[in-house]
Amino acid sequence: MSIKTSWKVRLRHLLPFYRRNAVSFTIGFLLLSATAFTTASIPYVMKMAIDTLAGQSDHEQLKNFALTLIALAMLNAYMRVKARTHIFGIGRKVEYELRKDYHSKLLELDSPFFDNERTGDLVARGNNDITAVRMFIGPGFLQITNTIMAYAVTIPIMIGLDHMLTLIILAPFPLALVAARYLTKALYHLSRKVADQFGEMSSFVQESVAGVAVIRSHAQDSNWRDRFGVESQKLYKAHRSHAKLQGLFSPLVILSGGTGSLTLLYYGGQEVASGALTIGDFVAFSGYLAALVWPTVGLGWIFTVMQRGLAALERVGRILDTAPFLEESILKTEQPTTRKKLLGDIKINQLSFCFKKDGEEKTVLNNINMDIPKGSFIGLVGRVGSGKSVLLNCLARLYPTEKGSISIDGLELMEIPETQLRANLIMAPQESFLFSATIAQNIQIGVKSDQRPEDAWQAAEQAVFSDEIKTFPEQLDTIVGERGITLSGGQRQRTALARALAVDPPILLLDDIFSSVDATTEAKILTNLRDVAKGRTIIMVCHRVAALYSADHIYLLDQGEIKNQGSHKQLLETSDLYQNLYSNMAKEEALEALK
Amino acid sequence: MKPAVMSETEETKYGSFLDIDLFSRFFKYAKPYKGWITIAILLLPVSTMAQMAQPLLIKQAVDQHLIPSNLDGFWLLALFFAGLVVMQFFISYLQSIINTMLGQRVVRDIRRDLFSKLTAMDAQFFATNASGRLTNRITNDTEAVSNMVSAGLINLVADILLLFGIAISMAILSPKLSLIAMISLPLILLGTVLITKRMRVVQRQSRVIQAKMAGHLTEQVDGHEVLRLFNCQEQNRNEFNQMNQEYFSTVIKSNFLEAFQFSFVETASVVVVAMLFWYGAGLTPEDGVTVGVMVAFIDYLRRIFSPIRDLSGKFTTMQAAMTALERIFDLLDTPASITSPAKPQLPDRPAASSSHIQFRNLDFDYGKGPVLKNINCQINSGERIAVVGPTGAGKTSLIKLLNRTYDPKHGSIEINGLSVDRYPLEHLRRMVGMVQQETFLFAGTIFENISLHDKKFSQEQIIQAAKDSGAATFIEKLPKQYDSILTERGSNLSAGERQLIGITRMFAFKPEILVMDEATSSVDTISEGLIQNALLQLQKDRTSIIIAHRLSTILNADRILVFAHGEIVEAGSHSELIEKGGIYAKLYALQFNSIQ
Prior knowledge:
The structure holds two protein chains of two kinds.
Chain A (H helix, E strand, L loop, with lengths): L2 H18 L1 H33 L6 H48 L2 H5 L3 H19 L1 H23 L1 H8 L2 H38 L1 H6 L3 H54 L4 H42 L7 H5 L13 E12 L2 E13 L4 E6 L5 H8 L7 E6 L2 E2 L5 H7 E4 L10 H5 L9 H10 L3 H6 L17 H14 L4 E4 L8 H14 L4 E5 L3 H6 L2 E6 L2 E6 L1 H7 L1 H19 L1
Parallel strand pairs in A: 3-8, 3-9, 6-7, 7-8
Antiparallel strand pairs in A: 1-2, 1-4, 4-5, 9-10
Chain B lengths: L19 H11 L3 H33 L7 H47 L2 H6 L2 H43 L1 H48 L1 H6 L3 H49 L9 H43 L23 E9 L4 E10 L4 E5 L6 H8 L7 E6 L2 E2 L5 H7 E4 L8 E2 H6 L7 H11 L2 H4 L9 E2 L8 H15 L3 E5 L7 H15 L3 E5 L3 H6 L2 E6 L2 E6 L1 H7 L2 H13 L1
Parallel strand pairs in B: 3-10, 3-11, 6-9, 9-10
Antiparallel strand pairs in B: 1-2, 1-4, 4-5, 7-8, 11-12
Helix pairs in contact in B: 2-3, 2-5, 2-9, 3-5, 5-6, 5-9, 6-8, 6-9, 8-9, 13-15, 15-16, 18-19
């Protein structure tokens, strides 16, 4: 991405936030400015108190100064707390809104988008990057304003006291600023290296734990220990180079503060001795010096925060700017017509589909034509990679229809409102993703109103899963764990099927969801599918003979094209490929029965 | 659908501030770095002195030189001050580096011990411990310990020393003034600790919500298809918004506390200075409170800020580290149940002959009812065994006992006349080569995945192994051939190709006994053929036990063991079993005759 467009992205997403929070920013700015004055007044009052103490005048006046000091300190604290909470609050608000937008965006985006993104990366954008933007807007703004105001208020007072001394004391400050800036910049890179190395080590451990069986069975434990030794040494070294610079930070503060104090002591001391400066001025100067060291060093840090924040904004912005393939009006409209039930007459006309990845195109579906009357049971067969799953994904509108057309009841698939489509067409995908929730919640995820347990039971029964659920101590309320880890593969698949059946859709698309279910159970499920909803259109990827027997019509796919079609009997007679696939299935099942 | 309730798990709990037992054990790890620790400790009083001395010098300057307008010897004082600043610069740099290095070295050593422990643990252990938690021990828990060393321990002492040092200097300068400061110091400390404590509660709350949000987001990304298919966007959005709002209100609370804490110490120290002035109003020159003393006090009060603020943060660091240490040592103390025997043996037998195996009265269970019951079986040298039977019949368990992934409850397995638990463990595992049903691949090149980083293999040997297994046909079609990078879990290879890699490992490692669990997942026809060929090659001159899922494997076997309910119900060659007319024959006849 070029620099120009990246700035466009940043501004497009930043400006609205600034505009919306303009009043808040102004209030925060005013509060901070006021704080700069109270902060600067404290050393001045101390100066007057010290001068009184050193002079011969009435010491009783010290009590007034003491009270003034306390009042100023309280006022200062009050305003500082206000300013900080206010400005950090804006940062938090922006964080909140950005996170909300980002989350909504991810809900809008579709399969082609997710195919090209990694989960870890998308989650990192939602967490770390948004945090970085918050740091940019909250603490970043605060620190910069603070520093500018501290300089703007303090330096004139110092000049008023003694301009020569001010010049000499502040002379090393630009140097400190440059050093701090250089340090934070270098440190940022080094800490990235530490983080990277830490990530490497973590994934090494993660992978070793996951692959421990292989390591063990090949007697590679000591080899892996050595490899971990190397990984941990690398991390140590990354930490060491980071520490060498990081360790300079606070000494640098000490040095710049100390040099200032030294100059003040030596040059200022002579001024005091000669009577050009009072002892109170001397104390005030040392107070101002202390007040300026941190903002100066902090400025170096804040540049890094801003840099990081802008980069993060760009990363988040890129996702926010991605458009889903469906029109917004189709995704969001809720009209009376959208409640209309579909019957399930499906027509596919000259459908082709290509995958695009890294600039390469790969045709996976080519000129598919199908006419599927409502209520029919359609089987899809073909070898691995023949295009069955992609076809179902297109039918389920997970992928766009790019060439050719798909229509349901005469309506263009790409123009059916989302709510209407999803209420009428359900697909059980190949990977039966389950959420870390209860079985009931997973089954009724698509049931919008009135989630009754008896309906969940009924769906589970149709999926031939209810008997097993009854053996669980918590039954339907069993929590399935992350990605359904506590269930077996077959149980996960049947949960996914029950989830589809619970919606009771007129159109049901079943991808290879019986791979971990045994043949007998599959046969029972098929019977249930045929009997329960008579008018339902079912399109199913078949991997077992029983499914082939059940299908009214079978399409044989090969290399993205329909090679043959017809009933099981017809295909057995006409297609060698079909015969081949069928006898393989039969053999597999025979073996399975043996087991 | 609601996300599972996330309670305060083991991972978010905090323990005590200091635990002597844990500590003394921890010090064993620090012991090798005694020299460094000594330097760090020796530097402590020096840096404290350097900090304490500066206000004293200022006092001296004010009282002896500035007010009396006497500049004799003033340059010496300034020079001394300059010396202190330079010294402090170097000492604090040295301290910071030593602290970090010490922390990182100790943590590196703990990590290595933890990893060694993990590699020594048995399958039972991994079956009962979540992998995420184990990884966490090595990554995050140790990080908490390193924080304690680098930012905690030594600095804690330094902060306390400095506070004491300042208190003593103030007492020497003016007992009366210091009394005022002394009274307020504990109050400031207490106030800071209280705020920090409250802040910790809120921060932990926000961390828990943040983790929940991250979990939600991860599920949302992984389950995006389901959310779309079942039209759950609205519901999902509402759930997330609720968490997001809860997070917002929690962090707003902690915002206030943070801001409050930030201003508290600073304000308190100004108030103390004011109190000093108030008190100073009533003092006479006889009290000995000179202007220089007052200036020094103001300076000291400015200096107590950062140690107090640091101290309150240290509590959290220490507590987190203690909890982490407890978990780390718990893991290190878990005994490994399968280890190499104390006096390992090797059988005496002529080389070159392949192994024979004897199962004697074998019983086995995972603690939930018997899995294998009284298995007795002799497998001859060079015999090809196919194991068939339904899922859960104990086939996989049987082969896992062979290389001591598990140990049997009763009975024994002898290889070449010697019980498996008498062999050196490493020797046994090199002797018994295992191909799992799902071949696990590591992130790395194909070469590394075949050799498993074992340095005894040359590039040529690995290429030869791939040629022997037939994997070379698909590897050599890849743009980078043997240097092609496989992603985590090898998702860029097909199931068949993955298993071929697993088989190629056998060609490289050349075990005496081959044990294999055939893949059940659908394998494309090309790989299918390659796998069959490779298997035949491997079985040559080698005793093999294969859990068969393919007809060809069964037909190629010398002998078939039919398993059911943890027992061998039938055994014999294909033709014998057919002739015998038992279960195998019945099922075979029933299924295959109808097809052919």
